[in-house]
Design brief:
Layout: H1 2-20, E1 36-43, E2 51-57, E3 68-72, H2 92-101, E4 108-113, H3 120-124, H4 127-132, H5 135-147, H6 160-178, E5 188-193, H7 195-206, E6 213-217, H8 232-243, E7 251-257, H9 266-278, E8 286-291, H10 298-304, H11 306-313
Parallel strand pairs: 3-4, 3-5, 5-6, 6-7, 7-8
Antiparallel strand pairs: 1-2, 2-4
């Protein structure tokens, strides 16, 4: 395990920074194999920097029907591998379309919120857990980022509270007004991977009246570069213990692989699983899955995306 730790620290940096700069690669409209994409360019916000929002509508979308809504982070990575920095994609259009046509899930639309480039980490890092960290540790993390601008994760102060305000008070009202949606929490879901997994868990805790379910894939519990003397996972765990929404009205999905970055997550995920059990969650409203051999990539998330989609939006 010690070899894994040493090798993963620089690899972690590569993955997170590449995720941060993804927006700068290709801004053309994604080509999808099913459904259609409508883009809102540079969606304005009084809370965060403006960014593109790609809305996927399934084949046969009809304004006379109402649709559930799945909000997904890192929107530029979801639909078209020819537009992404690593030539990978989640395959959201193919997977969701297939499940709808088979009648396995509710009819839904998918809202892909682009990350903000170098501000991604600041947008996605759960703010209240960050502010619960020792002040010296907060300062050391932010100062290290300022000193090393080439690899800085925190280009701004942590602002995930503002990111969530953007989602619930600006973007969601626009989506519900523009498209034929079911706006209640039973039909509103949020999903992401890595830091996007963290902020998805944060969203359902902070806004349980808005989001009825969250999918948190390869959740990046360690938050930064290293697991050595790192208080961040414990802070996240304490936050979840105090803020999980009711198990009677919400669904939460977690998963992780065993390769590269994902090899670090299992001990922390097991701690989270204990909290889920103690909070009354069971197989009806919570799932944690381990995928042996899976790594930290869009290819891996695509290979298992149907599982959380069915868990959250499944027709029971």
């Amino acid at each position: 395990m010690e070899i894994v730790k040493k090798n993963l620290i620089p690899l972690l940096l590569v993955f997170l920074i590449m995720g941060c700069t993804a927006q700068e690669t290709n801004t053309s409209l994604p080509i999808v194999s099913s459904g259609t994409i409508e883009r809102v360019e540079n969606f304005p916000s009084k809370f965060i920097s403006q960014r593109n929002v790609d809305v996927w509508l399934p084949d046969g979308y009809n304004s006379n029907e109402q649709y559930s809504v799945l909000y997904m982070h890192d929107g530029q990575m979801l639909f078209d591998s020819t537009n992404t920095w690593n030539n990978q994609e989640w395959g959201v259009d193919e997977i969701v379309s297939k499940l709808i046509k088979e009648g396995v899930i509710k009819k839904c639309i998918v809202v892909g919120i682009w990350n903000s480039g170098r501000g991604r980490h600041s947008d996605y890092f759960p703010q209240k857990p960050f502010e619960a960290l020792p002040k010296k540790y907060q300062d050391s993390v932010l100062n290290a980022a300022k000193r090393n601008k080439e690899t800085a994760l925190f280009s701004t102060e942590v602002q995930s509270d503002n990111y969530l305000k953007f989602l619930v008070s600006e973007l969601k009202p626009f989506i519900d007004k523009t498209y034929s949606t079911k706006p209640d929490k039973e039909n509103t879901f949020i999903a992401g991977s890595s830091m996007g997994g963290l902020v998805s868990a944060y969203a359902i805790c902070e806004y349980p009246e808005i989001f009825g379910g969250a999918a948190c894939m390869s959740t990046h519990w360690i938050g930064t570069f290293s697991i050595i003397n790192n208080p961040i996972p414990e802070t996240f765990i304490n936050y979840l213990n105090a803020n999980l929404p009711s198990s009677e009205t919400h669904k939460i999905y977690f998963d992780y692989g065993t390769e590269f970055l994902d090899a670090l997550y299992e001990p922390y995920q097991k701690r989270v699983d204990e909290i889920m059990i103690n909070s009354g969650y069971d197989e009806k409203n919570w799932k944690t899955m381990k995928f042996t051999g899976a790594d930290h990539s869009e290819k891996s998330w695509r290979n298992r995306l149907d599982i959380p989609i069915i868990f959250l939006l499944g027709n029971i």
